């Protein structure tokens, strides 16, 4: 399942294709949304916002398209008028003069007002997004030590979207390895130094993944690329201590770690 960095890159692609361009055609598969079609024609997409794994497509008239891909939803960018051959079920089509963005197979889709966005049950339940540049390590540390979260084991906490939105399985694995923490650790048992390092990594690793994953070194300027240190590397030596990386299951998800340095 895509995690926060992949969702944000998808949003970037949608914005690049259609942002600021008058919509020439709008189509929704769900009958409850079809009354909005005519009113959206001539408006433009102001921005595509990510909230964890949900997307909020903001229209110039003030309405917002909420969509959550769940397991099977996917957005595609195509030329205007194109109808790709696919077995997926088309749910949304927003088209400008030259490009169209298409949402396939998603089931959680709604048109909301700003007030409804503020009261949406999913959006009010999730924590701050790790890719929100206004979120700081100090904010994250405060959440780690909050009574609501500090007694939770890290393997489960890092998948809980109410703690931080946008984290997923590969990110929790890499964050815990980076900080040398085992999955059963709890925030309340960490030293201040460990808590500080974890707070930094919870932001730095997702942001590095968003900025650089899948890109060549020569195409970036800050010198670091995201790559897996432990995820999907069962049986390979740990880069830090040489111990063989192991795979187990934690919170019903595959978990990769180094027993040698994640004590």
What keywords describe this structure?
about 260 residues; four-stranded antiparallel beta sheet; elongated; alpha+beta; about 30% helix; about 20% strand
Structural write-up:
- With 263 residues, the protein is of the alpha+beta class.
- Strands 1-6-7-5 form a four-stranded antiparallel sheet. A four-stranded antiparallel sheet has the order 2-3-4-8.
- The model has no long low-confidence stretch (mean pLDDT 94).
- Helix content is 28%, strand content 21%.
- Helix 1 (4-18) runs parallel beside helix 8.
- The protein has helices spanning 4-18, 37-40, 114-119, 121-125, 137-144, 154-157, 169-178, 192-212; strands spanning 25-28, 45-51, 54-59, 64-68, 74-79, 90-95, 99-104, 108-112, 246-250, 253-257.
Mean pLDDT over all positions: 94
What's the helical proportion of residues?
A: 25-40%
SS class: alpha+beta
Radius of gyration: 20 Å
Cα separation of the termini: 28 Å
Q: Biggest β-sheet, characterized?
A: 4 strands, antiparallel
H and E order: HEHEEEEEEEHHHHHHEE
Number of separate helices: 8
Strand fraction equals 15-25%
What general outline do the C-alpha atoms trace?
elongated
